[in-house]
Amino acid sequence: MKKVFGYPESLTPSPTHYCPGCTHGIIHRMVARALDELGLRERAVGIAPVGCSVLAYNYFNCDMYEAAHGRAPAVATGAKRCRPELIVFTYQGDGDLASIGTAEIIHAANRGEKFTTIFVNNAIYGMTGGQMAPTTMPGQITTTCPFGRDPGHEGYPIRVVELLRTLRTPAYLARVAVHEPLYVIQAQDAIREAFRLQAEGVCFSLIEVLSICPTNWGLTAKEANKWLAENMIPYYELGVFKRPEAEAAPALVGAGSGEGA
Amino acid sequence: MGKVLMKGCEAIGEAAIRAGCRNFFGYPITPQTEVPEYLAKRFPEVGGEFVQAESEVAAINMLYGGAGTGKRVLTTSSSPGISLMAEGVSYIAACHLPVVMVNIVRAGPGLGGILPAQSDYLQATKGHGHGDYKLVVLAPSSVQEAVELIYEAFELADHYRTPVMVMGDGMIGQMMEPVDFPPQRELDELPAKPWAITGAKGRAPNIINSLYLKEDACHANNVALKKKYDEIVKKEKRWEAYACRGEKLDALVVAYGTMARICKTAADELKSEDKKKIGVFRPISLWPFPYEALAKEAMKAKRILVVEMSMGQMLEDVKLAVLGKRPIDFYGLTGGLVPSPDDVTRELRKILD
Amino acid sequence: MPKIVVDRQRCKGCERCLEACPQGVISMSDTLNEKGYFFAVPSQQPRCLGCQLCAINCPDVAIEVFVHGTQFQFFHA
Known about the structure:
The structure holds three protein chains of three kinds. By secondary structure, chain A is of the alpha/beta class.
């Protein structure tokens, strides 16, 4: 018998603390498989955020940091600038990256730091018990918008990939989802591509992964998958939003390009 | 290389290079911006990597990431920027990471002013960020001493695996003085760091982390830090006792940084003009503070005058050293005002007769 | 004949594998694992195609998939 699906070397044997059905585990596995397949584990260093995945330093079988809330991209910058041979990745949630850490991710991307960010968007603060995040959907009920997010008061959810796409610096930006196997397979390809680009020193890469939070959404894992498909995917468009080579010949503003900067 | 006439900020940058630092992360803020400017120009000549961060919050976290790889890393800033770095320094200390940071102090609080001051003493020595941790704080009183303390700060940081701050008032950064640089440290002779993030090849992964959800583990980390700080307190106190020889002093002035130089001038004047014996006690390590040494000199004096470019911060440590055994007077100007020798002699004469 | 092996102690009973399996191979146990979860069980093992969808959909890497060497590998994950 041949094993066609096994445990990645880049994950430690430790069971995870994530809630039953939470897709953090799938995302961890995909990152680990990408490191295995590209043979990068022994050069890799991951940077865990503050959030549900704060304990990721127990789960990835490579050197790890745990960063202050929102600062993982700065920590990654420091590590990569000091040891460029390292394969550096940050693993961050939406509270970490899209709220307190917005400046760090925007400027790291804009400087073109050659690391990879795995941005897990589950539209809520998980670890602290279900508060509104910048990515919380309009009308979505959380402990800090108990009557549903009101765009008139709390604005609309932030689309990070589109936000970063406006930066001129070359990058690989994609948004994927992990609520069903087909999407997981596509997400694995995007994550592998991001690490490949880093390994070849091409550009900064960020993969936004739409993920579920059964516990704080108040749904079973199955219902949560359905909620993600019906509510998040229409708003957070999936796909590759930017490739490094796409910016090779920038359209001159006002040169009749029409497309503009 | 012999003596070079150099501005404090630039000398600090060159001293870091001599100490084997090749990674800087900082942000512009007067009056220390010439350090990043200097290194932005100089680092390429020595294979250094200069990064201007988007904020001091980012800069200190870049320092955390860089220090974690075992490289010698530096950040420099000034008062408001140092405030923004508080959380990051707490993480750095909790993770036992060696870093060197420089505060060229400007007038506060708030946006304050850009002129020299010493109003960050308590921030640096008593409580910058959250939690039980300490910063080794060294206070130069000349550009030459700043260079030497930077050079030594990297050794201390690596030896004790702790953050070290060199704190100079604005003048230290902005003065030009002749400087003699220590020899270049060979990069491959820097201390080994098996704990560093270099890629888990042929070893178990290294983890740089300060989260301890289990209370006994978190307590244990605090005990480990305390053990280190006790050793630093025992071994790393530095001070200068100027004109304190003999058993009797008419008065002892306590001041640090450039303020101490001004007080020496005043002490010399009173010695020649008023035939008074005035000693000047200058702490060089603000933490660990030289309490015992100060107490010894203080007992020789009838009166003690503390002079600072603040509203009285080191004053509290002087009181701790003297424990009420001698009357302590204070004279301070801040906001960018700098007490002159005449101010100090006037204040001394007031308490002497 | 392909088969899956479920690590019953890692399984948290989220049933994602059960939903993903096109052949209805998987059902939940009626006994608890050490952490008190009902775990996944390949109760209809002979129906397994070796398609790996269960393992792909598992958040806890609790499922390993084995196929015969000659089994043409349709699925690449």
